[in-house]
Amino acid sequence: MNKLALRGEFLLLLATLLAAFGWVASKQIISEVPGSVFISARFLLASLILLPFCFNHLVRLNAKQLISICAVGVVLAACTQIWVYAISISSTLSEGAFIMSLAMIIAPFTSWLLFQVKPNRAFWLALPIAVLGMTLLTLTHGWQVEQSQWYFLLASALLSLHFVLNKRLTASIKPLTSISLQLFVVGLGGILSLLLSQPEAFEVSSQTLLWFSASTVIATSLRYLMQTTGQFSVKIETASLIMILEPIWTLILSIGLLGEVLEPQKLLGGGVILLSLFVYIRGSKS
């Protein structure tokens, strides 16, 4: 293995850990701060932090490219709004992380619906495994799905749409340039939501400010910078396998930092979902 690929894999591994940290940080922050305030501040600042790394490329974009990036950013904004709301009403972060990881399984189906790109054989092998995992994860107390699980599933579907559209977008635009502008659009979406909802006054503790700083700099800006740089030098199959680690890190961090307890059936369901992702990625590679 060459040094460039090894470095890319290490950066992706760190990116999954930072993404998992973002789940915990977000849960801590929105216990005090309204979701729309959190989204607007976090993503606007994160986009500004990334701006120096892509400014020269950003100013060279034409109007069509700018519109395309902003349109994909709107999808990411909608996904983020729903994701944050789901976190705010959920008692188990790791459960949400496992559901969100289904985006990789949903993406081929989304691409089929939008662009008539038929899923490969691996998708049809992985799909029933994913459904089984989702069933085990959500139906712990009989045939009743929690409200937060529906929102996580909707956010996962939107994330799959973003993945499909973003993949086509980055074929002609540098990924970091696209992500920086998309994060800015997400922040603007937060401001729009803030204006529409008009949340009540709130106070922010020093501890929440620390969580917010870490969420913005580490879990957003640094994470996307590492993820984008890592993906550039690593095969897509390898990158996908590494990204599977995000819900596992989220589970470990939520247990260690938040004292979360996951029921055995839900833990089994999460494991089955990871198995479906593994089957899909390995099957697509062969």
What do you see in this structure?
The mean pLDDT is 86. This protein has helices at residues 3-29, 35-58, 63-89, 93-100, 103-115, 121-138, 147-169, 175-197, 206-232, 236-243, 245-258, 264-285. It is built from twelve helices and no strands. The two termini are 19 Å apart. It has 286 residues and is mostly helical.
Can you describe this structure in just a few lines?
The protein contains 12 helices and no strands. It is mostly helical.
Features of the shown structure:
single chain, 286 residues, mainly alpha, 82% helix, globular
Instruction: Tell me the span between the first and last alpha carbons.
Output: 19 Å
Query: What is the helix content?
Result: over 70%
Reading the helices and strands in chain order gives HHHHHHHHHHHH
Number of helices: 12
Which band does the percent of strand residues land in? under 5%
Question: Uncertain runs with pLDDT below 50, 5 residues or more?
Answer: none
Based on CA inertia axes, which overall geometry fits? globular
Largest sheet: none
* Rg over CA atoms: 18 Å
Q: Give the total of beta strands.
A: 0
How do the helices and strands line up, and which of them pair or pack?
Elements: H1 3-29, H2 35-58, H3 63-89, H4 93-100, H5 103-115, H6 121-138, H7 147-169, H8 175-197, H9 206-232, H10 236-243, H11 245-258, H12 264-285
